[in-house]
Amino acid sequence: MRLALIVGKSGSGKTTFLKIAKENGIKAYDMSYFIFKEAERVGISKDPLSILSFSKKLREERGKGVVAEMAMKELKKLKEREKTELVVISGIRSPEEIEVFKKHAKCISIFIKANQEERWKRTKNRKKESNPITKEEFIEKDKKESEFGLDKAIELCELTLENNKDLGSFKRNAKNILEFLKCR
To answer: CA-CA 20 to 30 A from 171: which of 14, 61, 101, 179?
Structure first.
């Protein structure tokens, strides 16, 4: 099994990349699924700052690679159920998460890059319960994600996909990368 690890800040286009992967028959998961699942289990609110605080606490208590470890358990089950050559994992937040995945599979990490103003516009137009409501919350979320090691994870990426233009351009470029990854 090969993994495409998607790294990017909030609003950069990670979810859109996942959607494109799924539309092209590729299994795709978001790391936040595992955080929300655990937060729900212990009764944590789904507002953005509560989830970020919970994520930080989870990583402090169980290590920075904990979410990747939870994801790998699911991927091992997937591998047992069906033959899957390529899986896209989005929402990588630290170098430690990348290392956990590399211990178990051949990986390539891709940074989806978008400027802060473009990311804020996208975020405020989405209807996700976990999204920041104000620009100040958005900036605070960026800061907290950097504390997880996101900036260091970005530095480890082998590919960069720019997403500051129109959606059509991003989709074409994402499809090209996915086609390339299918052939590797």
So the answer is: 101
pLDDT in tens, 32-85: 888 988 899 899 988 878 888 898 899 899 999 999 998 998 888 888 888 778
Instruction: Say how far apart CA 43 and CA 69 lie, in whole Å.
Output: 22
Cα separation, 15 vs 44, whole angstroms: 23
At 6, give phi and psi (nearest 5°).
Answer: -100, 125
For residue 92, give the DSSP letter. Answer: E
Q: Is 65 exposed, middle or buried (0-12, 13-18, 19+ CB in 10 A)?
A: buried
CA distances from 32 to 51, 75, 175 (A): 9, 15, 23
Domains recognised in the chain with CATH numbers? 2-183 (3.40.50.300)
Q: What is the DSSP string of 98-132?
A: HHHHHHHSEEEEEEEE--HHHHHHHHHHS--TTS-
Sequence-distant (6+) residues with CB within 8 A of 65 are 94, 96, 97, 99, 100
**How far apart (Å, rounded) are the C-alpha atoms in residues 95 and 24?**
28
Residue 103 identity (one-letter amino acid): K
